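For the sake of clarity, the format in which proteins appear in this thesis is described at this point. The fold follows as a row of integers, each naming the local backbone shape at the matching residue. One such record is shown here in full, so that the layout can be seen directly:
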Amino acid sequence: MLTVLYPEIMPVIQQMPFGILPESLTSADEDYQAFIVKAPKELLLTAKINEGFKLYLIPVKVGSHITLGLITAFFDDEDEPLVIKTPLFLEDFSHNLFSFLKKGMLNVHFFDELTRELLVYRADVIIPDKTLKKINEAVLLKPSLSNARKILRAIEIAFSSRTKNDDEQAIDIILSTAIYGDNIFRQDMHPKRHSYHGSPGHSHTMLERQEPGSYQEEDIIQCLLLTFQPEQIFLNPKRTYDNEEMCDILIITNTTSLIIQAKDSPNIERISRQKLPRKRKNVLSALKKATAQVNGAISYYRRIPGKLEFLIDEVLHSVDTNSLELKALIVVKELFNDQSVEFSPQLLDIYKAKNVPCIAFGYPDFYQFCFNLKNEDAFFNAHCNVMENAKNTGVFPQVSFW
């Protein structure tokens, strides 16, 4: 595992949001080539189930130049797979990528978004002749943010309308041998990651999750720790009058209280193989339940004017709320880009009924939100901007970061 054998690469992977990284590593004994995939758990599970994934090298036009972009596709759904989009430029990344692929074998290391190494495989690479020609004749541009945006937009459009011929030219990455086993259990006892209120002092994770709730809550907190201090985070605060949960996670800063409600589903093969219409229906069902719970949490928060009382591990916490602005946020397993029209009314109803701004994310987008907004002012300003946009248009926008 890179985590153990090459710990010097870990800071580099931590700074990746999502993506792939072909990296040559050197030790006293050997030169090791690692093909790193950092992605949400659903993509990792799909790769494991399918025993592989595919790479699409897509020609795109940028100005007067024809260049290439890359789509890494994980087929949980035949028509709309999960993907990682990567612009390709004239730099070491592309050189290493093509060099690695041409060797016909990869050491694939799968990391989740929190940089936890969960799968390690030896993989065979099958490159169709036409695609090999693309690689050998590739004319790549110098890197720039403007070109990256153009390439990403172009490959997204091209991939959405791909043909059978495009599929036949995809590079197959076939996971042949599990190097470190295929069911890694990770225990984390790092004090700084477990000093929030309600923490048991440790956590563990694994790729396949039969009961997702506690895993998702812990993952959400680890995302929040990119932005907030541990003492601002409260896990599973309970109502004083019946000892039932007020909400899943509560953030309290000097200016703001944030109610967070989470909904997940098992990360197992049966769920992964569900048809897309069923997954979309599950999203709306999860949001409906979460919005009802947020409404209940807001009512409890305001039960005593100017004061919030709740229990954590049977310890009473009392907070003066007179100067705090109340916001809410819902995290579900995933949100599809074109579903905003369907779920926006539920969130806007919270604002209309309670005068509390509430926004929602699929978990991968929530991670990106925290990863890119690493202080509370930026986080809450972005929350405000998303809500204002929804109030003005009636539809919540898709949040993206370059």
